[in-house]
Amino acid sequence: xxxxxxxxxxxxxxxxxxxxxxxxxxxxxxxxxxxxxxxxxxxxxxxxxxxxxxxxxxxxxxxxxxxxxxxxxxxxxxxxxxxxxxxxxxxxxxxxxxxxxxxxxxxxxxxxxxxxxxxxxxxxxxxxxxxxxxxxxxxxxxxxxxxxxxxxxxxxxxxxxxxxxxxxxxxxxxxxxxxxxxxxxxxxxxxxxxxxxxxxxxxxxxxxxxxxxxxxxxxxxx
Length: 222
Ligand code: SF4
What we know:
There is one protein chain. The protein is mostly helical. Helix content is about 60%, strand content about 0%. Helix 3 packs antiparallel against helix 9 (about 135-140). Iron/sulfur cluster (SF4) binds next to loops. Iron/sulfur cluster binds near residues 162, 200, 201, 208 and 214.
Protein backbone atom coordinates (compact mmCIF):
# COMPACT_ATOMS: atom_id res chain seq x y z
CA UNK A 1 0.00 0.00 0.00
CA UNK A 2 2.69 2.45 1.12
CA UNK A 3 4.85 1.39 -1.83
CA UNK A 4 2.08 2.05 -4.36
CA UNK A 5 1.50 5.47 -2.80
CA UNK A 6 5.20 6.32 -3.28
CA UNK A 7 5.15 4.99 -6.85
CA UNK A 8 2.06 7.07 -7.59
CA UNK A 9 3.73 10.18 -6.12
CA UNK A 10 6.84 9.58 -8.25
CA UNK A 11 4.68 9.19 -11.36
CA UNK A 12 2.81 12.39 -10.56
CA UNK A 13 5.95 14.55 -10.44
CA UNK A 14 7.69 12.94 -13.43
CA UNK A 15 11.27 11.80 -14.03
CA UNK A 16 14.10 13.38 -12.02
CA UNK A 17 16.03 14.40 -15.13
CA UNK A 18 13.13 16.60 -16.19
CA UNK A 19 12.67 18.03 -12.69
CA UNK A 20 16.25 18.87 -11.77
CA UNK A 21 16.46 22.06 -13.90
CA UNK A 22 13.31 23.69 -12.46
CA UNK A 23 14.24 22.50 -8.94
CA UNK A 24 17.62 24.28 -9.17
CA UNK A 25 16.13 27.43 -10.75
CA UNK A 26 13.39 27.77 -8.15
CA UNK A 27 15.64 27.06 -5.16
CA UNK A 28 18.15 29.58 -6.53
CA UNK A 29 15.48 32.31 -6.64
CA UNK A 30 14.17 31.36 -3.20
CA UNK A 31 17.65 31.34 -1.62
CA UNK A 32 19.83 33.83 -3.51
CA UNK A 33 22.06 34.06 -0.43
CA UNK A 34 22.80 30.30 -0.39
CA UNK A 35 26.57 30.14 0.05
CA UNK A 36 28.97 28.59 2.51
CA UNK A 37 28.26 29.83 6.04
CA UNK A 38 31.86 29.46 7.26
CA UNK A 39 33.94 32.65 7.53
CA UNK A 40 37.36 32.63 5.82
CA UNK A 41 39.64 35.08 3.99
CA UNK A 42 41.96 32.76 2.07
CA UNK A 43 42.42 29.11 1.06
CA UNK A 44 44.25 28.11 4.24
CA UNK A 45 41.50 29.55 6.45
CA UNK A 46 38.93 27.79 4.27
CA UNK A 47 40.63 24.42 4.76
CA UNK A 48 40.97 24.91 8.53
CA UNK A 49 37.38 26.11 8.94
CA UNK A 50 35.99 23.12 7.02
CA UNK A 51 38.16 20.70 9.03
CA UNK A 52 36.92 22.26 12.29
CA UNK A 53 33.27 22.11 11.18
CA UNK A 54 33.02 18.32 11.59
CA UNK A 55 30.39 17.46 14.22
CA UNK A 56 29.60 21.07 15.08
CA UNK A 57 27.75 24.10 13.71
CA UNK A 58 29.18 26.68 11.32
CA UNK A 59 28.24 29.42 13.82
CA UNK A 60 30.35 27.71 16.46
CA UNK A 61 33.31 27.38 14.09
CA UNK A 62 33.09 31.07 13.13
CA UNK A 63 33.16 32.05 16.80
CA UNK A 64 36.37 30.07 17.31
CA UNK A 65 38.13 31.05 14.08
CA UNK A 66 37.56 34.80 14.65
CA UNK A 67 40.49 34.76 17.09
CA UNK A 68 42.21 31.59 15.80
CA UNK A 69 42.91 33.17 12.39
CA UNK A 70 44.51 36.21 14.01
CA UNK A 71 47.01 33.97 15.79
CA UNK A 72 47.63 31.33 13.09
CA UNK A 73 48.15 32.81 9.64
CA UNK A 74 50.58 30.34 7.97
CA UNK A 75 50.90 26.52 8.06
CA UNK A 76 54.09 26.94 10.11
CA UNK A 77 52.14 28.70 12.89
CA UNK A 78 50.13 25.52 13.63
CA UNK A 79 53.37 23.60 14.10
CA UNK A 80 55.17 26.28 16.11
CA UNK A 81 53.00 25.87 19.21
CA UNK A 82 52.72 22.79 21.44
CA UNK A 83 49.80 20.54 20.49
CA UNK A 84 48.12 21.32 23.85
CA UNK A 85 48.04 25.03 23.00
CA UNK A 86 46.36 24.39 19.66
CA UNK A 87 43.90 22.05 21.41
CA UNK A 88 42.97 24.87 23.80
CA UNK A 89 42.54 27.31 20.92
CA UNK A 90 40.06 25.05 19.09
CA UNK A 91 38.52 23.43 22.19
CA UNK A 92 35.03 24.90 21.65
CA UNK A 93 34.60 23.13 18.27
CA UNK A 94 34.57 19.71 19.99
CA UNK A 95 36.71 16.65 19.24
CA UNK A 96 39.61 19.06 19.83
CA UNK A 97 42.33 16.42 20.32
CA UNK A 98 41.64 14.68 17.03
CA UNK A 99 41.13 17.97 15.20
CA UNK A 100 44.40 19.43 16.54
CA UNK A 101 46.24 16.29 15.46
CA UNK A 102 44.69 16.40 11.99
CA UNK A 103 45.45 20.12 11.62
CA UNK A 104 49.09 19.65 12.54
CA UNK A 105 49.47 16.62 10.25
CA UNK A 106 47.82 18.54 7.43
CA UNK A 107 50.03 21.60 7.91
CA UNK A 108 53.15 19.41 7.90
CA UNK A 109 52.05 17.77 4.63
CA UNK A 110 51.18 21.13 3.04
CA UNK A 111 54.72 22.30 3.78
CA UNK A 112 56.43 19.06 2.74
CA UNK A 113 54.49 18.19 -0.39
CA UNK A 114 52.53 21.21 -1.56
CA UNK A 115 54.90 24.13 -1.09
CA UNK A 116 52.74 25.42 1.76
CA UNK A 117 49.72 25.85 -0.55
CA UNK A 118 46.30 24.19 -0.37
CA UNK A 119 45.97 21.65 -3.23
CA UNK A 120 43.14 22.03 -5.76
CA UNK A 121 42.01 18.49 -6.50
CA UNK A 122 39.82 16.24 -4.38
CA UNK A 123 42.37 13.40 -4.72
CA UNK A 124 45.19 15.54 -3.32
CA UNK A 125 43.01 17.05 -0.61
CA UNK A 126 41.90 13.58 0.51
CA UNK A 127 45.54 12.65 1.14
CA UNK A 128 45.77 15.26 3.91
CA UNK A 129 45.44 13.75 7.41
CA UNK A 130 41.90 13.99 8.74
CA UNK A 131 40.48 15.23 5.40
CA UNK A 132 37.69 13.00 4.11
CA UNK A 133 35.69 13.10 0.90
CA UNK A 134 33.16 15.63 2.23
CA UNK A 135 35.80 18.11 3.45
CA UNK A 136 37.76 17.69 0.20
CA UNK A 137 34.63 18.32 -1.87
CA UNK A 138 33.70 21.45 0.10
CA UNK A 139 37.21 22.92 -0.21
CA UNK A 140 37.60 22.08 -3.93
CA UNK A 141 34.17 23.57 -4.71
CA UNK A 142 34.92 26.80 -2.85
CA UNK A 143 38.24 27.05 -4.68
CA UNK A 144 36.31 26.96 -7.96
CA UNK A 145 37.18 23.38 -8.84
CA UNK A 146 34.16 21.26 -7.83
CA UNK A 147 34.77 17.62 -8.73
CA UNK A 148 31.89 16.12 -6.83
CA UNK A 149 28.81 17.11 -4.86
CA UNK A 150 28.94 17.64 -1.11
CA UNK A 151 26.53 15.34 0.72
CA UNK A 152 25.79 16.37 4.30
CA UNK A 153 22.75 15.57 6.41
CA UNK A 154 20.55 18.20 4.65
CA UNK A 155 21.64 17.18 1.14
CA UNK A 156 20.95 13.56 1.98
CA UNK A 157 17.48 14.22 3.43
CA UNK A 158 16.36 16.58 0.65
CA UNK A 159 17.72 14.41 -2.18
CA UNK A 160 15.71 11.52 -0.79
CA UNK A 161 12.53 13.54 -0.24
CA UNK A 162 12.79 15.09 -3.71
CA UNK A 163 13.12 11.60 -5.21
CA UNK A 164 16.61 12.29 -6.63
CA UNK A 165 18.07 9.20 -4.99
CA UNK A 166 16.94 6.07 -3.16
CA UNK A 167 20.36 5.53 -1.58
CA UNK A 168 21.34 5.95 2.08
CA UNK A 169 25.12 5.94 1.74
CA UNK A 170 26.57 9.46 1.11
CA UNK A 171 28.95 8.27 -1.64
CA UNK A 172 26.14 6.51 -3.51
CA UNK A 173 23.90 9.57 -3.10
CA UNK A 174 26.72 11.71 -4.49
CA UNK A 175 27.04 9.43 -7.52
CA UNK A 176 23.28 9.63 -8.19
CA UNK A 177 23.37 13.43 -7.95
CA UNK A 178 26.43 13.73 -10.21
CA UNK A 179 24.48 11.89 -12.93
CA UNK A 180 21.64 14.41 -13.03
CA UNK A 181 22.93 17.77 -11.71
CA UNK A 182 24.70 19.79 -14.46
CA UNK A 183 28.41 20.04 -13.76
CA UNK A 184 28.43 23.82 -13.55
CA UNK A 185 25.96 23.53 -10.66
CA UNK A 186 27.96 21.04 -8.56
CA UNK A 187 29.33 23.76 -6.27
CA UNK A 188 26.07 25.64 -5.75
CA UNK A 189 23.61 22.73 -5.63
CA UNK A 190 24.47 21.51 -2.11
CA UNK A 191 24.21 25.05 -0.73
CA UNK A 192 20.72 25.34 -2.23
CA UNK A 193 19.62 22.11 -0.56
CA UNK A 194 21.31 23.01 2.73
CA UNK A 195 19.59 26.40 2.94
CA UNK A 196 16.25 24.97 1.82
CA UNK A 197 16.68 22.24 4.43
CA UNK A 198 17.36 24.77 7.18
CA UNK A 199 14.53 27.14 6.28
CA UNK A 200 11.74 25.08 4.70
CA UNK A 201 12.31 21.33 4.33
CA UNK A 202 13.11 20.97 8.02
CA UNK A 203 13.96 17.48 9.23
CA UNK A 204 11.05 16.92 11.62
CA UNK A 205 8.44 19.21 10.14
CA UNK A 206 8.83 20.12 6.47
CA UNK A 207 6.87 23.27 5.57
CA UNK A 208 5.51 21.88 2.29
CA UNK A 209 2.82 24.57 2.08
CA UNK A 210 5.59 27.22 1.82
CA UNK A 211 7.85 25.20 -0.49
CA UNK A 212 8.67 26.50 -4.00
CA UNK A 213 9.23 22.98 -5.34
CA UNK A 214 6.18 21.27 -3.79
CA UNK A 215 4.69 20.40 -7.23
CA UNK A 216 8.02 18.78 -8.19
CA UNK A 217 8.41 16.79 -4.96
CA UNK A 218 7.03 13.26 -4.51
CA UNK A 219 7.11 13.72 -0.71
CA UNK A 220 4.99 16.88 -0.67
CA UNK A 221 2.22 16.85 1.91
CA UNK A 222 0.11 19.39 0.03
S1 SF4 B 1 7.52 19.70 -0.76
FE1 SF4 B 1 7.90 19.30 1.42
S2 SF4 B 1 9.13 17.45 1.49
FE2 SF4 B 1 9.25 18.26 -0.62
S3 SF4 B 1 11.06 19.55 -0.66
FE3 SF4 B 1 9.35 20.87 -0.18
S4 SF4 B 1 9.26 20.96 2.05
FE4 SF4 B 1 10.55 19.20 1.49
